Amino acid sequence: MELLQKMKVRYAATLLCFALAGCASAPSVPLPPEVQRLEHQFILANDDRSLRVGANPTYALLEFGPSGYKLLAFSKSYIAMTRSNQEELFISNGFTNVVPAWTDYSIKYKEDPVTGKRTDYVFEGGNVDRKIAYSPASSNFIYSAGQQVMPTLAGYGIARYYGLSVPELSKSIAQTNLLDEARAWNSGAKRYPGVAPQIVPLTLPRQVWMLINSGDGETGRYYFVPTKLTTKYGEYVDANSNVYFKHVEGFVTDIKTPIGDMKRFKVYGYSARTAGDNFSCAGVIMDIGAQTNLKQRFCGNTSDGSLPLLYAQSPAASDELNVLTVEGQAYNQNGTKRPIRSLAMNVGQRYGIQEFRVLPQDEAERVLATFR
Q: How far apart are CA 280 and CA 301, in angstroms?
């Protein structure tokens, strides 16, 4: 009872903090006055760009990492991004209007009929591959504004809506001293690259994997020689990243096993966490380092039933990256090439890897000698 009473007091105090808006853990740094005065007016495809102060814009490429935002590049045209934690900003030629340079979005807004100023932006978004599009749904400069059930050909789906996070946008501008840097670059006083930095890929050690895919059986064994890893955004996992298998021991304890320590796993069954939801697990037997026949699980909440295996932590990114595929070359058991240059790193009841084994070095060298 005493513990319950303490929890009630703490909860009441928390509510009071929110009501008074005076219990922040640390005081926020005041924004420079010029940043506070900025407009955030999106330039739409059918706008008069000169009228909207967009005829001679500056594009700025930022990257969000463990230490916050940093400037990477400036250009007078859109900069193709190379990493999923990059952000791009559009700066008007008068340095008064700064907005995210999203290229794929539908938008609703209110517009003042006299001034033409727009407010109350709402963006519709979804899951976006950053190789193709840069959208609100994949940006830090956004917050969830709600969702709506929408009819589809297959029944019903959820349409998610997003709003512009002005505080996060302002933080990136202040943290990078964006306006002064943009002025200096435009005047020629400072030089910046005009393109995004290219990622130096992490190269895997010389290995041979032996695999069986779901549903293929013993006769479906094949070899794979891995070289590079790619994420769900199509970017390479960069050099100096930590790469690991993520699996589960017991009920909720995540284990991260470095890719070099995983020697073998074999899937023996699948189960959903609760009926009707998307969270499921695959039971596996693993050999990790010198430990053999460990009984653990791969788990995930992907809607297609596939469960991710590999993750990477890049020194340039704050969040871990889901390693979607491994580039390399597949070979049949007789040594001939298979038309497979990319291996999906997941397990699943209908598709994915069923059995995985890293050949010992002496065995790998013998097998490599048979490839042609």
A: 6
Q: Residue 93 is encoded by which pair of tokens?
A: 């030629």
The token pair that represents 349 in the structure block: 């009841």
Q: Angle 178-187/166-175 helices, nearest 10 degrees?
A: 50
Cα 208 to Cα 11, 222, 293, 339, 365: the distances in Å are: 56, 10, 21, 17, 8
Instruction: Count other Cβ atoms within 10 Å, centred on residue 258.
Output: 12
Task: Kindly report, residue by residue over 113-150, the tens digit of the pLDDT.
Answer: 999 999 999 998 766 777 778 899 889 999 998 888 77
Strand arrangement, sheet containing 68-75 = 68-75, 58-65, 86-91, 98-100
Instruction: Give the CA distances from residue 287 to residues 99, 106, 258, 357, in Å, rounded to whole numbers and listed in that order.
Output: 50, 49, 13, 9
Q: Counting Cβ atoms within 10 Å, is residue 223 exposed (0-12), middle (13-18) or buried (19+)? A: buried
* pTM as predicted: 0.76
